[in-house]
Write a structure and sequence with these properties.
Layout lengths: L7 H13 L33 E8 L2 E9 L2 H5 L3 H24 L5 E13 L5 E11 L18 H8 L20
Helix pairs in contact: 1-3
């Protein structure tokens, strides 16, 4: 496998760090609040407006990244026209911000290519509480779909544990001075 200028570990670590930099209350280098421009909690006045709870997370598996988003919504918004496309646009804006933050952190760029459609699910617990959960999958550029699986894993079990397991572990031969009856809680 050819060595690339970005290792898989560096790419994954950079994506996770970029996403982690957007937590609620995060401060930038100039001590001002971090704004992604895509989250609803960043809109309006913090002191006057009702607080909106929303956020996102990234999960990485193989060469794919799953971006998940959750937010409080009103039923009026859900039944309005273009709700799904609005959520899809919000996810696109978040991915754009993650790419910029990744560039700022690592000095390198990353490509995230959409794979499939956005999956939007709206749930409610009462007539007042409603929230949306959305996810979308992206292919990460620079990571092969087939990881290097040909290398054997290293045996990292200490020698003392290895000898214990070779003797039978907890189910091994009991010592001569063990006077407990068999099958007594072992």
């Amino acid at each position: 496998m050819a060595k690339k200028d970005n290792s898989v570990y560096d790419i994954i670590q950079g994506l996770h760090q970029a996403a982690a930099n957007a937590y609620d209350g995060a401060l930038g280098e100039d001590e001002s609040p971090v704004k992604t421009g895509a989250l609803r909690r960043e809109q309006g006045d913090v002191l006057i407006d009702q607080r909106v709870m929303d956020g996102f997370n990234v999960k990485i598996y193989g060469n794919m990244m799953c971006l998940t988003y959750q937010s409080d919504v009103r039923l009026k918004e859900v039944y309005g026209n273009g709700f799904e496309s609005e959520v899809d646009q919000r996810l696109t804006d978040i991915v754009s911000w993650i790419k910029k933050e990744y560039q700022k952190l690592t000095g390198k760029s990353v490509t995230l290519t959409e794979e499939g459609e956005v999956d939007v699910m709206v749930q409610s617990t009462s007539r007042i509480r409603t929230w949306v959960q959305a996810k979308k999958h992206y292919k990460i550029g620079g990571i092969d779909s087939e990881m290097n699986l040909e290398e054997e894993s290293k045996d990292r079990v200490e020698e003392s544990w290895r000898s214990f397991l070779d003797l039978g572990g907890w189910k091994g031969k009991r010592p001569d001075n063990d006077t407990r009856p068999k099958n007594s809680g072992e």
